[in-house]
Amino acid sequence: MCGPAGAGVTIRVLLVDDQDLMRRGLHRLLELEPGIEVVGAAASGDAALALLEHIDVDVALVDARMPGMTGVELIARLTRDHPGVNALVLTTFDEDEFVFGSLRAGARGFLLKDASPEALVAAIRSAAHGGTVIDGQVASRVLARVGTPPAPTSALPGLSAREDEVARLVATGASNQEIARRLFLTEGTVKNHVSAALRKLGLRDRTQLALAYSRAGDR
Predict the structure, then answer these.
(1) Tens digit of pLDDT for each residue in 78-121?
(2) Partners of 36 in the beta sheet?
(3) pLDDT tens figures, 166-214
(4) Residues 209, 168: Cα–Cα separation, whole Å
(5) pLDDT for 154
(6) Where are the beta strands (DSSP E) in the chain?
(7) Among 27, 93, 85, which Cα is nearest to 53's?
(8) Sequence-distant contacts of 131-136: CB under 8 A, at least 24 apart
């Protein structure tokens, strides 16, 4: 499997949806985008896994609710067996079981099918480079769900005590201003601690940091 798509490199996309009309519509939409190529389409999780034995894929657009293997189950398989494939969930359903199940399984993001074409393309480009994308309608619920700080024994490794404290508050959905007020720090200092935590953990943004803290608490 090839590495993440870089600047000027075509992003290879796999469509996984049991609805033929949706697959065709997405294919037509994405084939118009420069730098994006649909290299495969599958109507089920099993079919998607079979295709991945023969093609290289950077981003998989996965429907959450499919007959047989669910989108969440497929993403878990991709995370385990095809770590180079960045999965994005694209679905009409925003129930918590799909949102959090997909993210915990390793999805790079979650978009509703009524997202604009521009938002979808931007999400694909972000996911191809390791970014996390969560639909605005469900982002607040994600932060609220991971808002309960884990016990100290589940803290993320490699952070200083202050970075750990700041990261834990980020996981509650607190802003830099709120964290600064609570810890009696300047906003600039808080921002520096957040940046240091992201760098040490190899993460790209605050959402990834919150999710990492949630997953650490589950272990």
Answers:
(1) 999 999 999 998 877 656 666 777 878 888 888 888 888 898 99
(2) 11
(3) 888 888 788 888 888 887 778 888 899 899 999 988 988 888 888 887 6
(4) 9
(5) 39
(6) 11-16, 36-42, 59-62, 86-91, 109-112, 133-134
(7) 85
(8) 131/204, 131/205, 132/108, 132/204, 132/205, 132/207, 132/208, 132/211, 133/88, 133/108, 133/109, 134/103, 134/109, 134/110, 134/207, 135/94, 135/110, 135/111
The H or E element containing residue 179 is: helix 176-183
Sign of torsion, CA 164 166 170 173? positive
The residue that leads in pLDDT, 44 or 165, is 44
Q: What is the 3-state secondary structure of 131-166?
A: CCEECHHHHHHHHHHCCCCCCHHHCCCCCCHHHHHH
Token reading at 110: 């979650």
